[in-house]
Amino acid sequence: MNSTIAMITFRAMLGRRRALLLLALPLLLLALSVVLRSTGYDDLDVSEDVLQKFGLATLLPLLALIAGTGVIGPEIDDGQLMYVLTKPVPRQVIVLTKLAVANVLVVVFAVVPVLLSGLVLTGTTARMTPAFTVGVLVGGLAYTAVFVALAVASRNAVTIGLLYALVWESLLGNFAPGAKSASIQQWALSVTDALTPASPVRASVGLAVAVPLLVLVTAAATALATYRLRSLTVASAE
Amino acid sequence: MSELRLEGVSRWYGNVVAVNGVSMTVGPGVTGLLGPNGAGKSTLIHMMGGFLAPSSGTVTLDGTTIWRNPGIYRHLGLVPERESAYDFLTGEQFIVAMAKLHGLDDPGVAARRAIARVEMEPAAGRTIGTYSKGMKQRIKMASALVHDPPVLLLDEPFNGMDPRQRLQLMDLIRQMAAEGRTILFSSHILEEVERLASHIEVIVAGRHAASGDFRKIRRLMTDRPHIFLVRSSDDRRLAAAVIADGSARSVQLTDKGLQVEAVDFQRFTWLLPRVSRDTGVRLWEVSPADESLESVFSYLVDR
Amino acid sequence: MSTSTIHDIGYRHYDGRRNGRAYVLRSLFVHNLRAAYGLGRPARAKVMPFLLGAIMLLPAAGSVAVFAVTDRPETLMRYSSYPPNLQVIIAIFLATQAPVLASRELRFRVVPLYFSRPVGHLDFVVAKLAALVTALFALMAVPVTVLYVGGLVTKAPDPGDQLLRYLGALLGCALFALVLSAIGMVVAAFTPRRGFGVAAVIAVYMVSTAVVLIVQGIAEQETNFTLSGWMGLFAPFNLVDTVQVRLLGASKSSVQVAPGTGAGVVALALCAVIVLGSVAVLYRRFRKAGLS
């Protein structure tokens, strides 16, 4: 971890318009929760629907994608990363710092809002709030690692990330059971499922499979990002 | 005193060879890396800066390999060609951050010293996004200088600078070379290289075309006609005598004097004094007209 | 003594005929349309649009193939359902390519270069929007056409009715392209940083769709189908689908569409507002960028 790299990355990510984009999504989740609560549509089914469809399946992958690719992708594209790479700093420190920043952003803009939204909707009923918070957190760690690795490996990182999150996880997940079990979203849901007795939460992957896979994917993605950054060739502009 | 050494370095991308079997040693002083656009200068600098692995051969700094060795950056400063820095930081914040990344004891002091070197104190409080091109170039220079490295690599440092900024940067580079640093800069503009570099390395189409003092390189190419400008008491008579001898291909009368294109450098320098003595013409001035890097270079490129 | 002269270096003014506004507009349009598919740019820029285009074709080809083998007409996908069913792919295409057209010149601050030539601000914006609309239309209309032609070749029943529905679906595709491009261009024009434009466009699509789906889910539980239908106007694909169903006689592909022909008119009006509003916003955005 390197505090200077972290400072620069935070400042790059939290510039005015970007901060707005990051903030708009969780605010919408909270607003929706408050509206549902005040109009009385806050039973367990609806709450689960909101937390899963909006929190876990929409907000989380989007924010992890923005944060994960945003902490390093533009710097590679625009060549500013040169200034960090030409320092006697081990490459794994750079990757771990970028990863940590992305994780902080995901916690602030996705995990905390899900926690708050859960509290607004269900309070502490059926331990659904902590269950979804933990699920979103572990899912966030895995997503972020994958998207950081993608950003180091490819210039089309954002699009590939979208194809994975939207097409593979959501679209194909509905048809092909194979795609469903190879899905960070489902693994995170499995963790949530294990933590709450609420019946609307139903994961398609067992905990014994989900947890090792989450750990494996996170570690592998981090290793890949470090390896790719060690031999990164900063090419010219488009 | 540090020495960058390239031995048999080649780099290819798929089927395209960007750098082909280059061996050179870059020692203290200013070395100009000269070549037309697309000759492979940037590829070479990227390999020297550790951003690109040589496909074959070795690049070392004082005996240590550069590729995949971040520790090397303690001894190496690199100014990339691309303009973009962290636009949202002020100049001072940027340089302090660079100093911290180098793990310097007192980053504030080091940053102020580097900023003072490039004379950017007045603008150090402004964000980099508001800088002009020359200012950006200078702040990038400060970022490479902050840890006082013995070796500096500059990729096209004069691009986009106005003449005054150009002179300032040249002064700065000269000063740093006088302190015993090893400085290599790339350029495709001859005038810059000619004014700054004592030593040139010429890259043409990925090949190492020439190396050394450019005047000496020029003299080595004896098969090329040399042009002299001669002023004398009677240009016409001298012209007639020179052309009669046959060591000159052409003689031209201009309002500045006599322009002689000599075929044989050796013979011409021996002949001219004799001819003038025999014809009784006084020589006032004999100067080589095309000893510029431009002519050396266009010769190498066209060969 | 020296005399000052201006040397004739052979520079000649262009006195010939100029091709005029239509030519400028067409050039901008063609340039942007090519850019939308990465043509004239490195291979890296071509990968995604063509990959997404290929993915768009797969279901149509598969559907025709299954029909040819089984001869069961219900295996042929409905033309009008094609864009809503593949909305995720279309949205990703929009998200990756809208910034190519809307943000690149802003990012590199070259917009003033356009306006230092006889290019009108409105022409510039309209050409860009039209290029993206055409690109999106091609993305949707090609597979729909494959579906129609495939049906003809494999002798799907009732060719007259098929033709009508095919033409209706093409109109639908055009409207989808218009509305989506309008939204995508505006969002991308305000997020010039690389990568963020893509994320912003997809966020607008995903969030609007997710919110609408959640509210629709609740409304359906309460058997309030009217509310559910009207909510659909707030998600882009559902909005255009409303027009398709209520004005073009298609069957619904969304969760719910608002009832009555009136709803179709309202939806169409909303589409028009989006497109015109987008042109207005883009006009102001690029005029401002052109000054700096």
What would your notes on this structure say?
Chain A is 80% helix and 0% strand. With 238 residues, chain A is mostly helical. Chain A has one domain (3-230). The radius of gyration of chain A is 18 Å and the shape is globular. In chain B, helix 2 (91-101) crosses helix 3 (107-117), helix 2 (91-101) packs parallel to helix 4 and helix 3 (107-117) crosses helix 4. In chain B, the strands form 3 sheets. In chain B, strands 6-7-8-3-9-10 form a 6-stranded mixed beta sheet, sandwiched between helices. Chain B has a 4-stranded antiparallel beta sheet with strand order 2-1-4-5, with helices on one face. Chain B has a 4-stranded antiparallel beta sheet with strand order 12-13-11-14, covered by helices on one side. Chain B has 303 residues and is α/β, with parallel strands linked by helices. Chain C has 292 residues and is mostly helical. Helix content of chain C is 74%, strand content 0%. Chain C has helices at residues 20-36, 43-70, 82-85, 87-102, 104-107, 111-115, 121-153, 159-189, 196-221, 225-231, 236-248, 260-291. Chain A binds chain C through residues 17-18, 21, 24-25, 28, 32, 36, 41, 45-46, 49-50, 53-54, 57-58, 62, 65-66, 69-70, 73-74, 77-78, 155-159, 162-163, 166-167, 170-171, 238, and chain C through 41-42, 44-45, 47-48, 55, 88-89, 91-92, 95-96, 190-191, 193-196, 198-200, 202-203, 206-207, 210-211, 213-214, 217-218, 221.
What's the layout of helices and strands?
The complex is a heterotrimer of chains A (about 240), B (about 300) and C (about 290).
Chain A: H1 3-13, H2 16-38, H3 44-70, H4 73-78, H5 81-85, H6 91-122, H7 128-153, H8 157-175, H9 177-181, H10 184-195, H11 207-230
Helix pairs in contact in A: 1-6, 2-3, 2-6, 3-6, 3-7, 3-8, 6-7, 6-11, 7-8, 7-10, 7-11, 10-11
Chain B: E1 4-13, E2 16-26, E3 29-34, H1 41-48, E4 56-61, E5 64-65, E6 76-79, H2 91-101, H3 107-117, H4 133-145, E7 151-154, H5 163-178, E8 182-187, H6 190-196, E9 199-204, E10 207-212, H7 214-220, E11 226-232, H8 235-245, E12 248-254, E13 257-262, H9 265-279, E14 283-288, H10 293-302
Parallel strand pairs in B: 3-8, 3-9, 6-7, 7-8
Antiparallel strand pairs in B: 1-2, 1-4, 4-5, 9-10, 11-13, 11-14, 12-13
Chain C: H1 20-36, H2 43-70, H3 82-85, H4 87-102, H5 104-107, H6 111-115, H7 121-153, H8 159-189, H9 196-221, H10 225-231, H11 236-248, H12 260-291
